[in-house]
Every structure is written in structure tokens, then in C-alpha cells.
């Protein structure tokens, strides 16, 4: 059992997430397009490549690195049978996010976030609730363009987070930020596709490893 | 069940590691994974204070050599004759073709720099793309004159419109008493 869990950690890319995306895919999906100069968040400046006629362009080399780390982390969590929660407060993509979560066999929350869902879980859901082991933000702002409450709550409850941060977002509290566009439909479909493929791949690998172990 | 809810102190990993060291918590699922593959920046809270004094723009603007040609093109010809079709990723707009032709003629080097712009315009005409100059046209001047005459006619037109409205109001007042009389007559026979 210990071998099963510790063996994947020795490889740098056990689930081979690098082959799922390329720089050209990110460019075609318009992941590099940010908001205008006035909307820029101070802490996003290291991730921005430049400003073309007042529109921020995100550095896709850095995005590649961050995306690879984030997908690798999600794959390992899914391999260890962790609970993953998808959060996005964009109404345009709420259905896409929910269907992605359903196909992975994981969970999604794309509606109004009540105050104590994570911090007051034992009162709201009853005792013995298992909180998510990873929270994935496909858009880290809520409907009034403020940071989503779940980012702060996950940091409070010591839950690691993966999140797509646009040029107007605060990437400080997110464990594995992915600087990229969160407004274009093509970009959101690309992220959903990548997360779905990594999680399904990790779960299949877990099944295979268990079968191999039983055969021995 | 102990825990540390202070999100502004340290990162998730540092707090969990310290709690584990004390021994009040059991190892969570993600701890080994984070230890093996840490992120590029440790997720520590930073206060989002605004910058004071003169704000230096750290991010460089993106400009290309071809932007000079593009700026001149748009100033003289306005937006091109054909709208942009963004559904194709390899679409070339009129301006892009102009820029490429300009660079070709510049590399050939047979034409002087001042005449390069006009020569590219002629070359594009030869290949079938018609460019219309904006602003300094005879047609534009005529439109300007028509606008002036229309402005002088406007008060006369407004007067006639007012008179028509007043006539209509008078007609309306004559009609409504007739309607009232007909309404009074109707209930009587029933």
C-alpha cells in the first residue's frame, strides 16, 4: 500500500501531463489575452508578458510551467482518491463546469456560496463530513469582481487550491495558480478538457496499479 | 480535531507541517504530493496595498516595426475595405497585406523611401484591392456642403412641423365632442 502511494512521487511526470497541451494549443484557445491596463492587479505583474494597445498579454511560457505543475498535482490527488471540488461563478460556463465534474466523478459548486460551507461544515452538513482535498477554481472572482470567498476559506481549512487567475485576480492565496484567460469560451473549454483528462487518467492508473498489486 | 485557521500567516503547507510536528493532526492526503512537487511561489498572503507616489509602469508596451506602416495606413485609408473575419486563424486583413507588400518592396530596394507608400498602394490596386482615401475627397466636400444647407433649412422645417401639430390638435378637439355626443346617444335606445 505504501509502495502504491510513494512510487508515483519519485517520477517527475508520472502521469505524463506534458503531452496533453502545447504552447500552440494555449495560443489558439486565446489563453494569453488579459484585461485592459486599468484592471490589472498588482500581484499579476510578474506573469504578464507585455501590454499591446492597453490590453495585457499573459506570458504563455510561465503559463505552461504553472499549468504542468497544477495538472500534475491534481493527477496525484486523484490517484490517491482525494475529493476534488470545481468552483466557478461565471454563469456563462456554469453548465460546462458541472458537466465536467460529473464526467470526472468529482464535485462542482457553481452557485451562490453560503458563508459557512467549509468553515462551518459540521453544523451545516452534520458531523463526520469529509471536506474536499483539492479545490479547483476555473474563475477566481465572483459575480461582483471580488475574490471568491472559497479561496480564503480553503486557506483557512488548510485545503490546497488550484486556480486560473486572470490579470484582474489576486494570486496570493492560491497554492498552484495558472495565469490565463478565464473569459473566453475556447479557453474555458480547454481547461475543462485538460482537467477532465488528467483526473480520468489518474483514476485509471490507480485501478491498474491496484489490479497489479492483487495479482502479485 | 485541531486546526489552524490563520490564512494570513505562512502558507497552507507550513501550517500543516508545524501541526504535524506537534502531533495534533494526522497527515493529510496532499502533504506528500506538495512536498514532492512544490509550486514556483509559496502561497503566502500579501496585503494588496496600492502604490503611492508616482506609479512606474513595470510592464513593457508591445510594438513592432510594422506598426509605423500600419498607423500610416489607418490614418490615410481608414479601416480597410473588407471587414476582419476572425473565425479563421490564418486570416490576412487588407492592412496586413499592405504591410507585407511594403516590406517586399523595401527589401527589393529599387524605390525611394518617400515613394514606397504610394508604390505599395498602386501594387495592391494592380492585384485587385481598391483602397479609398478618407477625409480629403471631393465626395466628402460635397457632403459637407449639403450638411450646411440642411442646417439652414432646419428652423423652417421645424416651424412647418409645429404648425401641422397645432392643426392636428384642433382637429382632435373638434372630433372628441362629436364622439362624446355619439356615446351619450347610444345607451338611450338600448
Automatic annotation (TrEMBL), chain A:
Transmembrane segments: none annotated. NCBIfam families: rpsB_bact. Belongs to the universal ribosomal protein uS2 family. This is Small ribosomal subunit protein uS2m. The keyword Cytoplasm does not apply. One of its GO terms (molecular function) is structural constituent of ribosome. It is found in: Mitochondrion. GO terms for cellular component: mitochondrial inner membrane; mitochondrial small ribosomal subunit. One of its GO terms (biological process) is translation. HAMAP family: Ribosomal_uS2_B. It comes from the Eukaryota. InterPro entries: Ribosomal_uS2 (IPR001865), Ribosomal_uS2_bac/mit/plastid (IPR005706), Ribosomal_uS2_CS (IPR018130), Ribosomal_uS2_flav_dom_sf (IPR023591). Keywords: Mitochondrion, Ribonucleoprotein, Ribosomal protein. Required for mitoribosome formation and stability, and mitochondrial translation. The keyword 4Fe-4S does not apply.
